[in-house]
Structures are given as structure tokens and as C-alpha cells.
Amino acid sequence: MGKVVMYSSVSVDGFIADENDEPGPLFDWLLSGDVALDDSGVLKVSQASYDYVRPYWDQIGVTVVGRHVFDLTDGWDGTPPSGVEHVVVVTHRPPPEGWNPEAPFHFVDGVEAAMAKAQELAGGRIIEVAAGDVGGQVLAAGLVDEVRMDVAPVVLGSGKRYFGPVDAQQLLEDPEVVIQGDRVLHLRYRVRRSPS
What is the pLDDT of residues 142-157, one digit of tens each? Predict the structure, then answer.
């Protein structure tokens, strides 16, 4: 089974985007350094951020997102982001008109079905779940092993919450990793499991 990681950049007050789905300065850290994070040459981070993020990206087999994120990104033009092999899209709707059926995107109804499909595709690699509504649902279902946050030094005031619709207390372990980069603080927590 692949480890399930809920992940996103987030403001210090817990938002992944403003009310208009704009991230604002949340991703400035991806452009603030001098070390290329990927082959595009666009993303440049500090050495500390590179040493933390690049090995993580290299372990991701599947990314799980909601239809809203898929639509906002125009489905990454059919190519999964950051070199990920597959994207599982949680949606009640069919793929968009004219969508290439050969693209490595899988449209699944409901988070439990999405996670089952992601485990099937991941081949034991990490399953990344985008924070927000879908991530919050996966966390509430008890299916998240780890929470990763790239905390940007910005207060958005309102917007789309990192944990989405979660309205029940969830306990995390003490942070396993705390790394300061340029314009970002990288945090990693294991999700505390209730004794059975």
C-alpha cells in the first residue's frame, strides 16, 4: 500500500487560495531561489527547499484531486504535474468533451473509490492528495497517513481552507520535519491513529 499524503502550500491562517481560487503569493517560494526544482527551469527554490521537495516529488506515483482543481488547471493539458504518472479526479461528472482517453487521468465518483483506484495505480509509491475539499474528505475518512504543508508567510484572511470541509477534531503527531526555505516553512506531520 502506498503512503497517503495530503499536501499543499498554505497561508499562515490556513488557506490554499482566496475566495476567487487565486493563490496570490502562496507559491512565491517556488520562484524565490536559485536551484532549479524541475526541468522547466521556471521553478527555482532555495537549496533547503530543493533537498526537501525534490525527493518527495520523485516518490509520488499518483495525485488525487477534485474536479474543481482539474477544471482550474485545464487538466494540465493531459500531462500530470511534476512528473507524476497518474492523476485520479474525484468527480460526479464525465471527462470533459473531447478529452483524450489515453491521457493518464482517471475519473472516479467518491473519495473511497478514488483512493482504491489510486492504490491500484501507485504500485506502492506515494499517493498525494491535494488539500482542500477532497483532501479534507479523505482525512475525515481516516485514509491520510501524513500531512505536508509548505507554509507561506502570508495572511489571506479568507478563502479556500487547507482542510476543506473537516469539522471534527483531527490529531496529528508532533512535526517530523520542520525546514525553513526562502519564503516558506516546510512542515510534515503523521496523522495520529485512534487506538482500535
Answer: 999 999 999 999 999 9
